[in-house]
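[Q] Does anyone have a clean structure-token version of this?
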Amino acid sequence: MPGESITVRWCTDEPVIHGSAEFSQTRGWPLRFRLDRWWDERPRALVCMANPSHAGAERDDPTISNLVRLARPLPIGGFTVVNAEPFIASMPAVLYRWRRHAIERRLNDYRAIRRRNLALIRELSESASLRIVAWGRLLSSLPPAPLLLSALSLDFTRALHAFALTKDGCPKHPLARGRHRIEASAELVLWRRAATEEK
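[A] Here you go.
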């Protein structure tokens, strides 16, 4: 149901992984504001990507499966996924088309969604043990992101990390393939320092 959070458990060869997700709808637009996976009680990382695909509380998609693989070696108990845009789309072109339509035809609705999303990101960042960005090059095709970065970094007082970086410095997406595939590691790459760390 829209706006409902569901929690489930399932077993694999690894310890039990728990899952939950928060979905909603506005004007019939399918939205996912957060998705959680956790395996113990240690604090969770906050992972921000461009937009959600079709994973849910019980269902992993390839992105979430890879996130579990990359996150398990880290000193965390799980992760919460948020997105620059909460609109559910498996293809970037669909996301850009929705955003263009929303701004042109339903600007007030789009602004309300964006306010809710940024407020949630800021709230979750306050309790996160790590803040990881993983949107690949997709964010460059979305609007300038100072508000998003401010929410993620708590007004630039917290560092932002990545699993790995592209040659041009973008935080790699978990689905990077081939020679760009990200190997699981217990260490992250610094993407943006906290303002208090800058000289």
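[Q] Thanks! Anything notable?
[A] The helical segments are 62-71, 92-105, 107-127, 146-152.
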